[in-house]
Design goal:
Layout (H helix, E strand, L loop, with lengths): L4 E4 L4 H13 L4 E5 L19 E5 L5 H11 L3 E4 L6 H6 L2 H23 L3 H6 L1 E7 L24 H20 L3 E6 L2 E2 L8 H11 L3 E4 L5 E3 L1 E2 H14 L5 E4 L4 E3 H15 L12 E4 L14 H7 L7 H14 L1 H7 L2 H11 L6
Parallel strand pairs: 1-2, 1-4, 2-3, 4-5, 5-6, 6-11, 7-10, 8-13
Antiparallel strand pairs: 9-12
The structure holds nicotinamide-adenine-dinucleotide and 2'deoxy-thymidine-5'-diphospho-alpha-D-glucose.
Nicotinamide-adenine-dinucleotide (NAD) binds next to helix 1, strand 2, helix 4 and strand 5.
C-alpha cells in the first residue's frame, strides 16, 4: 500500500476544496476519479496541473473494472468518496441519475474497495480507510422546537436526493458490519464557499444580485439551514480520516442556523457594499417569492458534539465572515463564473425557474 489517497468527485465543489487543502499540507499524492458531469470542473484544480502529486482520472464510479484497475495500480491508503448527484431540485425533476451514481456508484466503490482491501496484508488492512461523505438530509426535517440531528436520529429522507444518500449510507454501514471494511461516514450540513456551482442557494443569489436579476426565494423563505464554511468541512473530513473510529458516523455542522430569507438579505447587503453599481441598490428589492420546492424540508440543524468531544473538531469560521469571503470570491472570479454558466446551466435555470411563478 502506498501513501496515496483516492478521492472521488474531486472536481466538484467540496471535493476540489478538499484536494487543494490536502495538497497544501500533505505530501501524499491524490488520485481524483471524477466523471466531470455538469457539476465537475477541472478548472477548480488548475493550480495543480504541474503538481506531480495530483492526477485526474476522468471516469465513472459505476465502472467497476476502472475502479478495480485504479485501486490495483495506485494502492491507496484511503478512499474519500464525494462523488454524487447533489442538487435536491434536480432530483425532483429526474431522480434516475441520483439512484445510479449515489446508490449503485457507492456500492461499486465499496465492493471494489472490499476486494482490494481483502488482499492487503494485516497491517495495511488495519491502516486502510473508506470515508463516505454524506449529508444531514438523510435525517429529514425538524420543527422549530426539535433538538438538532444527532448520530442516533432515525433516518427519514424526504427527497429522491436524500433517499439516495440514505441508501448509500446504509450500504457503507453494511460493508463495515458484514465484511469489516474500515468505513467511516460523515453527515454534514449545508456548505458554502468558493467553487460552489451556482445552482445552489448562496452562489445563485450572489450572481443574481450582482446582475440585478430576481432573487427566487422558495415558499415563505422561513426554511432554516445550518451553514458551514467549506474549509471547515474539509478540516473535519481530514480529522475523521486521521482519528475517527472505524464503523462510526460523525455529524458535522456549523452551529449557524439561518432562515433562507435572512441569508438572501445578508447577500444583498454585501453585494450592495462591494459592487459599485449603486443603481441596483438596495438589492433586497430584488427578492421574489416563488412556488415552493415539493417536499421541502423545513429545518436542518446539526448536533456536532460527538466529533468535537471525540476528535476535537469544531468549526472555525463564523457565518457572517464566511459569507463575506464567499461573496468576495464570486465577485473576484468572473472568468470562473462565465466558464460554469454554459448552455446546459442556462437550460437548467430556465427549467427550474420559468414555471416557478409567484404563488
Ligand atoms: P457537487 O455536485 O459540486 O460535485 C459532485 C462531483 O461528483 C462532481 O465533480 C461530479 O462530476 C462528480 N460525479 C458525479 N457523478 C459521478 C460519477 N458517476 N462518477 C464520478 N464522478 C461523479 O457536489 P458537492 O456539493 O461538492 O458535494 C460533494 C459530496 O458531499 C456529495 O456526496 C454530497 O452529497 C455531500 N454533501 C454536500 C453538501 C453541500 O452542502 N454541498 C453538504 C453535505 C454533504
Ligand atoms: O444539508 C446538506 C445539503 O445541502 C446537501 O446534502 C446538498 O447536496 C446541498 O445541495 C444542500 O441542499 P439544500 O437543498 O439545503 O441546498 P440548496 O442550496 O438547494 O437550498 C438551500 C435552501 O434554499 C433550501 O431551503 C431551498 C432554498 N432555495 C434554494 C434555491 C436554489 C431557495 O429558496 N431558492 C433557490 O433558488
Amino acid at each position: 500500500m502506498r501513501d496515496t489517497i483516492m478521492v472521488t468527485g474531486g472536481a466538484g465543489f467540496i471535493g476540489s476544496n478538499f484536494i487543494l487543502d490536502w495538497i497544501r499540507d500533505n505530501n501524499s499524492p491524490v488520485i481524483n476519479l471524477d466523471l466531470l458531469t455538469y457539476a465537475g470542473n477541472p478548472a477548480n484544480l488548475s493550480s495543480l496541473v504541474n503538481d506531480s502529486r495530483y492526477q485526474l482520472v476522468v471516469g465513472d464510479i459505476c465502472n467497476s473494472s476502472l475502479v478495480a484497475t485504479l485501486l490495483e495500480t495506485h494502492q491507496p491508503k484511503a478512499i474519500v468518496h464525494f462523488a454524487a448527484e447533489s442538487h435536491v431540485d434536480r432530483s425532483i425533476v429526474s431522480p434516475e441519475s441520483f439512484i445510479r451514481t449515489n446508490v449503485q456508484g457507492t456500492q461499486t466503490l465499496l465492493e471494489q474497495a472490499r476486494v482490494y482491501w481483502s488482499e492487503l496484508d494485516e497491517a495495511n488492512q488495519r491502516a486502510f480507510r473508506f470515508l463516505h461523505v454524506s449529508t444531514d438530509e438523510v435525517y429529514g426535517s425538524l420543527t422549530a422546537s426539535d433538538p438538532p440531528f444527532s448520530e442516533i436520529t432515525a433516518y427519514a429522507p424526504n427527497s429522491p436526493y436524500a433517499a439516495s444518500k440514505a441508501g448509500s449510507d446504509h450500504l457503507a454501514r453494511a460493508y463495515y458490519r458484514t465484511w469489516g471494511l474500515p468505513v467511516l461516514t460523515t453527515n454534514c450540513s449545508n456548505n458554502y464557499g468558493p467553487f460552489q456551482f451556482p445552482e445552489k442557494l448562496i452562489p445563485l443569489m450572489v450572481l443574481n444580485a450582482l446582475e440585478g436579476k430576481p432573487l427566487p426565494v422558495y415558499g415563505d423563505g422561513a426554511y432554516v439551514r445550518d451553514w458551514l464554511f467549506v474549509e471547515d468541512h474539509c478540516t473535519a473530513i481530514r480529522t475523521v480520516l486521521e482519528k475517527g473510529r472505524v464503523g462510526e458516523t460523525y455529524n458535522i455542522g456549523g452551529n449557524s442556523e439561518r432562515k433562507n430569507l435572512d441569508v438572501v438579505h445578508a447577500i444583498c447587503d454585501l453585494v450592495d457594499e462591494m459592487n459599485h453599481n449603486t443603481s441596483l441598490a438596495p438589492r433586497r428589492n430584488l427578492v421574489t417569492f416563488v412556488n415552493d420546492r415539493p417536499g421541502h424540508d423545513r429545518r436542518y440543524a446539526i448536533d456536532a458534539s460527538k466529533i468535537d468531544r471525540e476528535l476535537g473538531w469544531h468549526p472555525k469560521e463564523g457565518f457572517e465572515s464566511g459569507l463575506r469571503k464567499t461573496v468576495r470570491w464570486y465577485l473576484d472570479h468572473p472568468a470562473w463564473v462565465d466558464s460554469v454558466r454554459t448552455g446546459a446551466y442556462l437550460d437548467w435555470i430556465r427549467q427550474n425557474y420559468t414555471e416557478r411563478v409567484a404563488p
